[in-house]
Structures are given as C-alpha cells and as structure tokens.
Amino acid sequence: MPDSGYPWPIETTRLDNGLRVVVSEDRTAPAVAVNLWYDVGSRHEPDGQTGFAHLFEHLMFEGSVNVAKTEHMKLVQGAGGSLNATTNPDRTNYFETVPAEHLELALWLEADRMGGLVPALTQETLDNQREVVKNERRQRYENVPYGDAWLRLLPLLYPPGHPYHHATIGSMADLNAAELATFQAFHTTYYAPNNGVLTVVGDADTAEVFALADKYFGAIPAREDIPVAPDGRTVPATGRPAVETVTADVPAPRVYVAHRTHPYGTPGYDVTTVLATVLGTGRGSRLYQRLADGERIAQPDLVGAYGVDLAHGPAPLIATATARPGVTADRLAAGLADVVDELVTVPVTAAELDRAKALLSTQWWRHMSTVDGRADVLGRYATQFGDPAKIGERLPAWLAVTAEQIAEQAAELLGAADRATLTYLPEETS
Amino acid sequence: MTLIAARPGPGAARPYRFPQVVRRTVAGGQVVAAHLPGQNLAVALLLLDAGAGREPVGKDGVGGVLAKALEEGTAQRDATAYALAIEALGTELVTGLDRDSFQVSVQVPVERLGAAVELLAEAVRTPRLDPADVRRVRDDEATALRMDWANPGPRADAALRADLFGVGNRWGRPMYGDPDTVAGLDVDDVTVFHSEWFIRPGTLIVAGDLERIDLDALAAAAFAGAGGGPVEKRGPIEVTLHDRRRIILVDRPGSVQSTLRLGHPSPHRAHPDHVPMTLAGTVLGGAFTSRLNHLIREVRGYTYGIRGDFASSRRFGRFAVSSGVQTAVTAPALVEAVGEITRTQLTGVTEDELAVARSWRAGQLSVELQSPRAIAAALTTLVVHDLPDDYHARLREALLAADVEQVSAAAATHLHPHALTLVVEGDSAVIRDELVAADLGEVVDHAG
Predict the structure, then answer these.
(1) CB-defined contacts A:B, below 8 A
(2) Which residue ranges of chain B lie beneath pLDDT 50?
(3) Which domain holds residue B406?
(4) Same domain as B205, residue B250
(5) Looking at the predicted structure, is the pLDDT value of residue A3 above 70?
(6) Which residues between 117 and 136 in chain A have a beta carbon less than 8 angstroms from any beta carbon of chain B?
(7) Which CATH topology does A242-426 take?
(8) What is the pTM of this model?
C-alpha cells in the first residue's frame, strides 16, 4: 500500500485575480476532468432565502454572455463529455469530464459563466428553473417514504441561526419568493475568481493548463470583502436529547440516531469516519451483526451508519435501522441506541478495526480511480484546507486511527444527552 | 467585457483505445480480462448464465433470494465468519442480476484479488443454504421488495412490462419478482436454482493491472469444483405491438407527482439497427439536451427530468420514457411527450441534433470507461452478447459514421407512438378526468 493516498503529481498556481488553479497530470487515458469549487453553499443563506444557492446552481447552466440558453449542455455533450454540478451546505461544485482535445472548450465555458452570467440571466429562466427545482424537491423529498428525514434531522442537530440548521433544497415558500435581483447579486457576490478553485486532472500538460487558465479567467475581476457565512464551529450542548416522532405514509417503522462530531478534515473526524465504518458498513459491522443478524429486529438491507463530510461545523454521524415486520419502533430504537452506546463499553477489536480500514482503503482507491473523482477531492482540499497536497494525508490518517480513540470519541460525543432521534411510524391502516 | 468571446475549437484528438483484452480457457471455464497498467484497484466478476430469464414463471425473484443466501454461510464457515473474512480484504460480495446474466463480484486493492476470488468462489459454489436461513432470507427479500414498492415507480414499471409482454411470460414480469412471488418461494426453489445454474463454470471477468495478477490462479479458484457445460442460449422472442394506444392508471392517493412510464416493445440487442436506434433514442430522450428533456423540463418546468431510450437484452427490447411530473400538469405533460415521440417518428432527426448525439455517445466510451468497475461491466457486454475484443472501437466508428438518413429511418421504423402504453402512477381522484379528456387513448384503472 502506498504511503500517500495520492501518488500522482499536483501542481498549483494562483492567478493575479486570486483564482487558484490545481493540475494533476495523468496521461493514462485520453480524458480530462475540469472541476470548479466555489466556496459558497446553503450555509451562506440568510433567513427567507433557503434553497437559493442550489437554485442558483441551476441558473449557471442556462447561458452566459457568449453562451446561448441551452448551449452549455449541448456543447459539453456534443464534445462527448459528462457534466453536472452539486450544492451542499458547504460549497457548490461544477464539473465536466471531456475527451482531452476539448479541454479548452470546457475552460472557456466555465470562464464565461464565472465572468458573464448576470447579463444573460432573465426572469423567464428563473421562473422555469424555480419550477424545475420545486419538482426536484417533490421527487426527492416529498413523494418518497422517509424522503424528508434529512430535512428533519438538521434542525434537531443544529439550532436556529446555525449555518447547517436548514437543508440545501430550501423551503417551497422561500423558492416561490425568489426574485431575480437577489440572484444577480448572489452571482456578483460569490462567483468571483478569488472565491473559487479550478482543478484539472488527466490528459493535459500542466504549463498549458496554467496558460489557458490565465487566458480565459485572467481578466475576470476579483471581488473584495466576500461575506463570510455565520460561524458554525461551536454548537452549544443543550444537555438533553432531541427527539422527533413522525407518523407518515411509510411501510415500516424506521429510526435515525444522529450526533454532532467534528468538522471534516480534522483528526477527530478521521476517528468518526473509522467509527462509522465499524458501526455501520457491511455485514460485518456492529449494527448488522447485532440488529439484522443477532436480534433480527432490523431489515438487513436498511441498516447502516455514515458520517456526512461537512467541514464548517461539527459534522453529523447518522445511524439508521428499519424494523422487521412485527418489531415496534420502540424496540428498534432501544436496540439502535444500545449498539451506539456499546462503542464506549465494548472495545473495538483488532479484527473490527482492520475490517473497517480495509473497506475504507478500497473506498478511497475507488474514488481515486477516475480523473473526475480525483479532481473533485483536490478542489475540496484546496478550497477547505488551503492546500490540495493535503489530500495525500487522509488515507494514512484513517489507517492510523486506534480503538482507544474510537472509544474516547464515543464517550465524549455519542452520549444520550447529545443524541438526536428521529422515528417514523406508519399511519394506522383502516 | 473582459471575457474571450470566441469559442475555442478542439485540439488534436488522441486515438481511442479500449484496454487490451485477454481471453483464456482455464480449468473448464472462460477468462476475459482487461489490462489496466498502474491501477491499484482490481475487480473480478463471475458471470453466470443465470439471469432472470432462467427463472421459471411464478418463481420470479428466486435469483435475488439466492444471491442473498450465498452469504449466509458456506461449507467452510458461518455467515459472520464469512462476512468478516471477505470484508477484511476490503470488499463486500456484490451481486447483480439482469435478464441475461447473474453477476457476483469483488473489488479490492490488486494484491488482495486472489484471496477475494477464493472467497467469492466459496460462496457461489459451496453455499450452506441451510433451510432456516433460506426461509429467513426469502422473508427479508419479500419485505425489502414491499419497502421498495412503497416508492413511486415499481408498480408503474410492472404495469408497463405486463402490458407490453404479457404477465404469463417471465419477461413480462419484474426482474426481481414482486413481494408476493418472492414470499411464495420455498427452500427447494432456491436450492434447485443453485444446483441448476451456479455450478456451471461461467466466465471470470477481470479488470486490473495484469502484470500484478495471476489469471490462471484466479481461474483455478473460480472454477474449482464447477461442472456441467454451457446451456444453449435461446433466440429472440417475437412480440406483437398493440393496435391502439392506451393509458393505465395506477392509483397513488395524495401523490404530489405523477410517475410516468410510456413504452412499447422494440428489437433485441443483436438487431442490425442497434446503433441508429440508440442514436434516435438519444436525440429523443437519452441526453440532457434531448427533445423530451428540453421541452418538458427546460421549457415547461413540469419535471426535474425526463428520459427515454431503447433498451435491449438478448431476447427482446423495449422503448420507454420515464419521468415524474407535478400532479397538476400530468395531462399536458403526457400530451407533449407523446407529441415529441410522434414528431420524431414522422420527421426524424436533424443534423445538429445528431452531431451532438453521436459525439456524446462516442466520447462517453472514453469518459465513462475509466474505473476497473466500469471496464469490467464493458467486458461483460462482450461476453453476454458474443462481441469481439475490438467491439468498443468498432462501436465508436459506427456511432461517428451514422448519418441523418439512417437514424431517421430507425426512428420511423422502431418508434410506434400509436402503440404506446402510457402508465400513470398518481392521485387518480385528481387526474383521472383530465386524462380521459386528453383523448390520448382509453383510460384503464390498474387493479391492485
């Protein structure tokens, strides 16, 4: 196993306007990934504007000064490329992977929407994409059983005013109230070169990428005093559990148990990552062994635990289980809580630790096996930690986590008083 | 303005190259491998001729139950010991099933591939299949399907499939069965299916750095104790089109969206029109820039997305469109979707649209075939459909060479807007009258 989690070259530069450019050459296949991280997410949204960062992401595909409406997708797909964008509480990322000869096209498109979106933004486009996003909300959160769990967990974990209190998809009321001028200002405020990181990975020459970045992005003006999001690093303990029970049109009782841990990228969160894998990844995990196999109270396909990799506040650790037929929600919740509590009292064995680390190693290399996977992580490390080369430290840090650290973290952070529990109960059927 | 207005043209393209393919016969089985130099991760996949098409009618889902039962202990160790052994290598046992094949695979750092394949073979060839375990797995699978069928989609999919292909045929029924067929399986169904189909050697697919992999040793492990030859593959199925369009309404009270599934039968995978059909499907519904997504999402805002394509297996195929639209616009969305299908059938595609479709499909062969998992999937396509090593390079050429006449002709021949079945899963009380008034076809209420 390599000493580093990133055995490829990394070169960086910064344009005069503040845009950071990261290049990682890999000539294995004739494909190149282009990825832009903007350091703006739903954590920046004030009251009454929830969902705006994500709705804005949609507007970035609708044309800019030199790119007609609908042309962005057509040009990338017409070059043989794949493309998308995502928004989360921390940030917004835009990415395309194209055959290597189309690198310059991808850079031109990204520069045009960084520097020239506002003049092309129309009321008609906003109205259309507002409807698309409302349908996204219906499809992903409202029309599926348990679909709103994440929307309910966040306010249980983070108090009003905390940047993670509300979900990225936003509320229907706020989306309906969205005005064009707000989005024009949003772009002017946050989509500045000094608030972004451009990453290029794959079949490209580093010096050439630096020159092309300067050619296409170099004249876009920097913006002074970009507003920062509210500080979410500390969440005062309430001293009592947060509990919510929902009766809904769901096929079986389901319980989520959630805790605040550490921000992604810290040594504490490395412990959380390994802890979550011990607890809830695979048939050898504690939750599977205890609830799906041992007591047989949980459905085997629907039991698990995971950390949500957020970097600007204590990131959530979530464990979940769904009841087998005939098992009550109370019994399931008690079983789930027991397994979490036992992380303190029943030491993690060497075999459990090795299993978790082996699964995490494979997960890491799987993520690194594509140029697009690598580009996104480099962009993250440059944006959130100021240095893309820190990417190489993550896997070794996971592999260095000890059983004692897991027990300590469980004792410190996973106690009942710091627990949020969300329970779904099926509606009574007549 | 400080931006560069002129759109840059492409640089010089490097030649397309699919990884080198190695084929061998070892220990009575076939090995098909792709060389990925320098890749730290490797995938091994055992491909068995045990897809849903091999399941007897009424035993739908037996393959899925068997897949789960494989991990409930082997001749050598119990379920917990097996889970700990395989996960200690960094992989879970991944099983997959389609109409033509059953796949079971591992993905590990390359130096652990040998040990992982031994464990894979142990589960596939010598599962314990204790009757009490099999019954429990069956019940869990039935519950899992009930959970899944509580989501919008599965009931609509099943209604469409039954209407196109006939519920009396295995290919007219859901891939993984339904909650009732799975609940009705008994232990013998599972053990017989195993002895019939999981002892034959099959094909071992490997994607990784072959300089660090001993293919003969992997094959010896994968095929140890296997026996029986391949079974003859059956030919394409004749499916007749309906003589009129109709709507099947699946009630989902209170639904804030209507789930749409529109479709009709289409040719099997080896049909000579495969490439022009794929491109016609891409222009109509296969890409973000397609006609359907442009109109229904980008112009109307009715949906988060709508897709349509031709899909095919060895024996049959289907054209289908799927989407979720806001309840209030169900009827207009259907009218407009049928309108785009009709327009494409009547007037074909334009050169501009086709240029995007063919470049996109060709470029995806570079862009999406990077990881060992993706390469392994590409190799399974070669094996299942009896294709040559240079298939992907040839496919790329065929895509780039397809012209407007060929693709328009494929659209004219293989799209059948008047034979469409339109399945709508939504709030019947709210949408039924509008669907009738839309006059797209008779509205039939789905039973159950």
Answers:
(1) 231
(2) none
(3) 246-445
(4) no
(5) yes
(6) 127-136
(7) Cytochrome Bc1 Complex; Chain A, domain 1 (3.30.830)
(8) 0.95
